[in-house]
């Protein structure tokens, strides 16, 4: 209640002197200024939001009221005592705002019917419009108004207590969310660091493997030359004394070849272990980070994919950059179609016509796109590899497979 009503009770147990306990039959609703004075404060406070009330007061005074929300409320309540420009504006605004509720309350033919509809509105949690309709209803006598006013007063107390409890819980949830956010950020940082370390280890192992492959090629070439020289000497001079020495050199080369093979097998095992660790980290990380698979690029380059156009249909959108990186490392041109998520069927047909090779990720495309790819490749004879898992590792294996087919 407002300060100007501090000396007045919230509701009276008996009607004031000269006022009947029940109104005579009438079809006209009571106006705002005709209601008891102790109803004006709850009507203005409950039924009109502060922003709407301020606009109505500004319109009533034909300017901007230089007052805070409390003063606006108190002034509006004071104006409701008589019929004037502001009380007329408030009456019209309330009738327009709750027109549907007023229309529903018209079905009430007695004070008991009004109270029944008021109690139903309380149960449904929509009391503002029902409060205005019940107070101004033609069948609302003093007892109905007094009862509605009492119950609204208690509803306001209960709503205030609930709001305070909800606010305290909201503050607790904010603190809990901030703590969980900090823990998540730390976990993500540790994950990124671990992933970076494994990536560096993988790069080192791949560099060692490349060096070992280069040495293997040089050794194989030298061994082939020695075999050719030995065969030529044997054919020209079968009894050459140096044949024994050449055989010894050949045995020594074979021993070195065995040692190199063992070293290469060990490096391959290290590469496979590091690749499995990196795949596990990539599957667990929250965001796909494009990683260039250098070993896949080496395998594709060996399959002579240079200057060929490779079309990838489907796959995760966050992994497209990784697919492109691996494809371009092999010297091929990369094209992508999302398999029907956003790109249309006409664009898919155009991409298939322009592509030399196709990798189709079946787990991320529509049925229509799958059958279009399969039918086109079968009809044109283009090499196509179907991959179920849309990961960077699966795409790398698909590149190796299509490289073998293209060769």
From TrEMBL:
This protein's record includes keyword Coiled coil: yes
Entry-linked InterPro entries: UCP020408
UniProt family annotation: Belongs to the UPF0751 family.
Keywords: Coiled coil
Coiled-coil residue windows: 170-219, 250-284
Any Pfam family matching the protein: DUF2325
Species whose genome carries this gene: Massilia violaceinigra
Source lineage: Bacteria, Pseudomonadati, Pseudomonadota, Betaproteobacteria, Burkholderiales
Superkingdom field: Bacteria
Full protein name: DUF2325 domain-containing protein
Keyword Coiled coil: yes
């Amino acid at each position: 209640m407002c300060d100007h009503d501090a000396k007045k009770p919230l509701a009276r147990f008996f009607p004031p002197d000269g006022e009947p306990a029940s109104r005579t039959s009438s079809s006209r609703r009571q106006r705002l200024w005709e209601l008891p004075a102790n109803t004006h404060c709850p009507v203005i406070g409950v039924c009109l939001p502060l922003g709407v009330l301020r606009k109505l007061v500004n319109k009533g005074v034909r300017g901007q009221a230089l007052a805070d929300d409390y003063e606006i409320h108190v002034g509006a309540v004071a104006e409701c005592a008589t019929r004037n420009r502001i009380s007329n504006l408030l009456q019209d605004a309330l009738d327009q705002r709750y027109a549907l509720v007023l229309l529903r309350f018209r079905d009430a033919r007695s004070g008991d019917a009004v109270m029944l509809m008021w109690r139903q509105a309380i149960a449904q949690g929509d009391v503002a419009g029902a409060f205005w309709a019940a107070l101004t209803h033609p069948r609302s006598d003093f007892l109905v108004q007094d009862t509605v006013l009492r119950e609204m007063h208690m509803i306001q107390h209960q709503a205030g207590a609930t709001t305070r409890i909800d606010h305290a819980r909201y503050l607790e949830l904010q603190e809990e969310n901030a703590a969980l956010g900090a823990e998540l950020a730390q976990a993500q940082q540790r994950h990124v660091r671990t992933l970076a370390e494994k990536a560096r280890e993988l790069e080192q192992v791949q560099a060692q493997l490349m060096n070992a492959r280069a040495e293997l090629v040089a050794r194989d070439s030298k061994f082939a030359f020695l075999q050719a020289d030995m065969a030529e000497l044997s054919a020209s001079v079968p009894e050459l004394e140096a044949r024994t020495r050449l055989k010894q050199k050949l045995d020594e080369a074979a021993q070195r070849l065995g040692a190199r093979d063992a070293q290469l097998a060990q490096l391959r095992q290290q590469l496979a272990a590091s690749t499995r660790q990196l795949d596990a980290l990539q599957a667990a990380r929250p965001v796909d980070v494009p990683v260039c698979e250098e070993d896949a690029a080496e395998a594709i380059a060996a399959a002579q994919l240079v200057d060929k156009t490779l079309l990838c249909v489907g796959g995760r959108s966050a992994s497209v950059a990784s697919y492109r990186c691996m494809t371009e490392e092999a010297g091929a041109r990369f094209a992508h179609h999302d398999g029907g998520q956003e790109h249309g069927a006409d664009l898919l047909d155009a991409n298939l016509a322009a592509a030399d090779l196709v990798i189709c990720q079946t787990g991320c495309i529509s049925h229509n796109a799958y059958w279009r790819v399969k039918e086109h490749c079968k009809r044109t004879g283009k090499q196509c590899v179907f991959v179920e898992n849309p990961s960077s590792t699966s795409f790398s294996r698909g590149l190796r497979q299509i490289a073998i087919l293209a060769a």
